[in-house]
Amino acid sequence: MLKKFFAILSVATVIGTASPIMSEAATYHTKAISVAKTNLGVPYKWGGITPSGFDCSGLVKYSYSKAGKTLPRTAAEMYGKGTRVSSLAMGDLMFYAPNKASRPTHVSIYMGSGKMIQSASSYGVSIASTNNTYWKPRYIGAKRI
């Protein structure tokens, strides 16, 4: 009986020790997405970094800053941060360029289930499919912050 108690206590301790690390990452990614969602419908504004108007990187920078993470200002600078990933997870930054050889000019936040949130010149802050016929051929990769 005492051995079972200590075995359960050991497992609980390991889980309790590991979960803050996992929950911190999950928390700031989820928080950044939530912040971006509260800005749905905000108009696109080139150079915009506030809820009165966002460009793509302004929305991402703003959303992550509210979640406690500091990011550079432009999509190209953001592309230099984080870890490159091939399998997307919620909160990953997705980067797009006019052609595969150029530097990124657009960034969005992956929301899961094939959806991303972005600020695009045609729709402002909006949710789009990652298979969108405009963005899909311009996709150059993702980074995990």
From TrEMBL:
Superkingdom of the source species: Bacteria
Keywords associated with the record: Hydrolase, Protease, Thiol protease
One Pfam family linked to the record: NLPC_P60
PROSITE patterns reported for this sequence: NLPC_P60
Gene3D superfamilies (UniProt xref): endopeptidase domain like (from Nostoc punctiforme)
GO molecular function, one term: hydrolase activity
This protein's record includes keyword Hydrolase: yes
KW DNA repair (keyword) present: no
Residue ranges of domain NlpC/P60 in the record: 26-145
Similarity comment: Belongs to the peptidase C40 family.
PANTHER family registered for this protein in UniProt: MUREIN DD-ENDOPEPTIDASE MEPH-RELATED
Protein name: Cell wall-associated NlpC family hydrolase
Species name: Peribacillus deserti
